[in-house]
Write a structure and sequence with these properties.
The protein is mainly beta. It has one domain. It has two helices and six strands. It has a six-stranded antiparallel sheet.
């Protein structure tokens, strides 16, 4: 029995709900040499990371571990770290799940 494969069409932007996304796969072959895997949204322009690569030093300094929070300061987004996987002598992969904050309306902000 095969597990269902997630395709680019299955990805929905968690920040705005748009289905107009473009996947950038991790890998050192192909059109780009990307160490992280993410998809970008055409509607809101935000990048949503799925996999982020870190070195051993970055892991120690950042204190990244499963269950903690990873912040992408560039895009002002936060993620739960679901899993940390050591994939080489000096490289780790962090599997991320976006933390979507509900929009605060003006009436809620005044309360």
């Amino acid at each position: 029995m095969e597990a269902p494969q997630t395709t680019q069409q299955d990805r929905v932007c968690p920040w705005c709900g748009s289905e107009e996304t473009r996947l950038v796969q991790r890998g050192y072959t192909g059109p780009t040499d990307e160490v992280d895997q993410y998809f970008t949204c055409a509607a809101c322009g935000k990048a949503t990371y799925e996999l982020v690569a870190k070195t051993s030093r970055e892991m120690r300094l950042g204190r990244f571990r499963a269950g903690s929070v990873y912040q992408d300061r560039t895009h002002h987004t936060r993620y739960h770290i679901n899993r940390v996987l050591k994939i080489g002598v000096n490289e780790y992969l962090m599997y991320l799940k976006p933390i979507v904050q509900p929009e605060v309306t003006a009436t809620q902000a005044r309360s």
